[in-house]
Design brief:
globular, 6-stranded mixed β-sheet, 7-stranded mixed β-sheet, lipid biosynthesis, Chloramphenicol Acetyltransferase, alpha+beta
Length: 462
């Protein structure tokens, strides 16, 4: 297998990690046993564990580890792990009795606390079961250097029957592709120079925006400003997709605007329950946006930027909260994802490897000066998915918490539902269930704006 240099943003994520602040993404997927006769002999959990190991081992990207190099100075490459053993990455945990979904959610939060072993390919999968032939869950952890949201889906989807079967476990597995040196083609050299000048100009603009947007004395909700403990709690919420679309049709904007307004209203309700005084402005959300072009290779490095959004938690009227979110997001989109303080990834792309290696420890706390909460949407295939013939019922994405952050909210759409994964610092946000309930209540209130919408607003997950 050929090696591949880590892209600048991948390298930044790799060096931003610390023991108390692991930089991995995650997803918790819940499955129901297949109806009728199974295709596998023996207990279901043993068959699924073997299937997970076989399919994960066949994904080329999951056999790669990060290896330092001499040139460029401070750089690193993705290199084949010659001693790769999939059993070091795929594990089985038997849960005690009780509510299975609640138990799986609790253990997933604990597992998300643990950093990935850096000498190995940076990923893990956990099969969570209670009964040998009962419902089961799969927790996937992928280092952010390995995957942004879209690339994580491209990699992780390889475990599902539909994706594994479609590609026949052969050539189109996710992995590095050879890159022709830019100096081998004079025309490409000219394009490289022109693009480099444009990129540097954008980076200067982003740097200025970051300085202007930085808050050396952030004001917001106390839990979001609490110190990091390194502990993790996971909460889940399910929204009805048609309910969200009904609100969008009634009020305008996009479904994402509606979801961001639900987050703002949920935080407002949560603050009231905690007896907190609402801030005049904010809290500020970082809303990632992909810079990946349609049809681009999923193994071509992180391609991210982001928008900054002041969440209008101080506004008591839900319709006006939604209008404020829509106006702010329209303004962000008009400026584009490569401008403004949220486009830190654009700036990261212009830094040399040595700057990421030595600058990351200094930059670990900088996120707190720019934003208070991460709110991200992760795309999934629209078709129904299964594992070993067992249908996927629910899937909750999970985002990492950098130093200084105590809450991250990730959303994805599957099976006519919007699944929300809440990742929180366990000590800063011990009442994550209250926030989940606040999100449900906010959607219910927004639905009152749509009298004809008879869809059930939320499911009782959480």
């Amino acid at each position: 297998m050929s090696s591949e240099l880590l892209a600048p943003l991948d390298l930044a994520f790799w060096h931003l990690e610390s023991v108390g602040h692991p930089m991995h993404l995650g997803a918790l997927a819940l499955f129901a046993p297949a109806e009728g006769e199974r295709r596998h002999g023996g207990p279901l959990d043993e068959a699924v564990l073997e299937l997970l190991a076989t399919r994960a081992a066949a994904i080329r990207r999951l056999r790669m580890r990060v290896q330092d190099v001499l040139v460029p100075v401070g750089g690193a490459v993705w290199a084949a792990d010659k001693d790769f053993d999939v059993r070091r990455h795929v594990h089985h945990i038997r849960l005690p009795g009780g509510d299975f979904a609640a138990g799986a959610t609790a253990i997933a939060g604990e597992l998300m606390e643990r950093p990935l072993e850096r000498g190995l390919p940076p990923w893990e999968m956990y099969l969570l079961t209670q009964q040998p032939d009962g419902p089961f869950a799969v927790l996937v952890k992928l280092h952010h250097a390995l995957a942004d949201g879209m690339r994580a889906v491209a990699i992780g989807a390889g475990i599902f029957d539909e994706i594994a079967g479609a590609r026949g476990m052969r050539a189109r597995q996710v992995g590095p592709s050879p890159v022709r040196p830019w100096f081998a083609d004079p025309a490409r050299l000219v394009d490289f120079a022109r693009n480099r000048i444009d990129d540097l100009g954008r980076a200067v603009g982003v740097s200025a925006s970051v300085v202007r947007a930085s808050r050396f004395d952030p004001r917001g909700l106390s839990a979001l400003a609490a110190g990091s403990s390194g502990t993790r709690r996971l909460g889940t919420v399910v929204f009805d997709l048609e309910a969200v679309r009904g609100i969008r049709r009634e009020t305008g904007g996009t479904a994402n605007d509606v979801l961001l307004a639900i987050v703002a209203g949920g935080l407002r309700r949560w603050a009231h329950q905690r007896g907190e005084q609402l801030p005049a402005t904010g809290p500020r959300a970082l809303v990632p946006v992909s810079r990946r072009r349609p049809g681009s290779a999923p193994g071509s490095g992180n391609k991210l930027s982001a928008y900054l959004l002041e969440l209008p938690v101080g506004e008591p009227d839900p319709r006006l909260r939604l209008a404020a979110v829509r106006t702010a997001m329209d303004r962000n989109k008009a400026a584009g994802p490569s401008r403004g303080a949220g486009a830190l990834a654009v700036l990261a792309d212009q830094l040399p490897p040595l700057a990421h290696r030595f600058g990351a420890p200094l930059a670990q706390g900088a996120a707190r000066m720019l934003f208070d909460v991460l709110v991200t949407s992760v795309p999934l295939p629209r078709s129904a998915l299964s594992l070993g013939g067992c249908p996927l019922q629910e899937i909750y994405p999970m985002a990492p918490l950098p130093r200084g952050q105590s809450l991250a909210i990730a959303l994805t759409t599957y099976g006519g539902k919007i699944h929300v994964g809440l990742v929180a610092d366990g000590k800063a946000v011990p009442d994550l269930d209250r926030l989940a309930e606040g999100l449900r209540e906010e959607l219910a209130e927004l639905l009152e704006l749509v009298p004809s919408n008879a869809a059930s607003p939320v499911s009782p997950a959480g």
